[in-house]
Amino acid sequence: YFIWLHFNHSFLLIFAAMPGTALYVSLLCFLSVCSACYISNCPVGGKRSLIDAPAHKCMACGPRDSGRCFGPNICCAAGLGCSMGSPEALSCTEENYIPTPCENGGRACGSEGGRCAAPGVCCNSGKKNNKKKKK
């Protein structure tokens, strides 16, 4: 005689011929292994809850934190323009570890929902486009 137990996507075969104490001890050992904490990085409400999550202001970067991150390697400051892949933009990689999206201020620009990062520079989704202003 045997019994199949289904627990947490695992199966356990318990023989009914086992003495009572051995049966309980083996069941207890199995449950202690199966109830371990499984590591995941999903947000509390699931992956789709990030869509509704409130955005925070993107991280500061550049000299004296005068700029804002516009991507993992892009730092833009009003008076200095944008630097890509430079030491000033190094702190922008930390934004990837924050589970909620960030937003920068500035005027909307471009056809793909970009934001003005510096005079003549429009950024969106980690891409930078130089746009010359018409006079």
TrEMBL record:
SUPFAM superfamilies: Neurophysin II (SSF49606). GO terms for cellular component: extracellular space; secretory granule. Coiled coil: none annotated. This is Isotocin. Belongs to the vasopressin/oxytocin family. The keyword Cytoplasm does not apply. InterPro entries: Neurhyp_horm (IPR000981), Neurhyp_horm_dom_sf (IPR036387), Neurohypophysial_hormone_CS (IPR022423). GO terms for molecular function: neurohypophyseal hormone activity. It comes from Hemibagrus guttatus. Gene3D superfamilies: Neurohypophysial hormone domain. It comes from the Eukaryota. Keywords: Amidation, Cleavage on pair of basic residues, Disulfide bond, Hormone, Membrane, Signal, Transmembrane, Transmembrane helix. The chain crosses the membrane at residues 12-39. Pfam families: Hormone_5. PANTHER family: ISOTOCIN, NEUROPHYSIN.
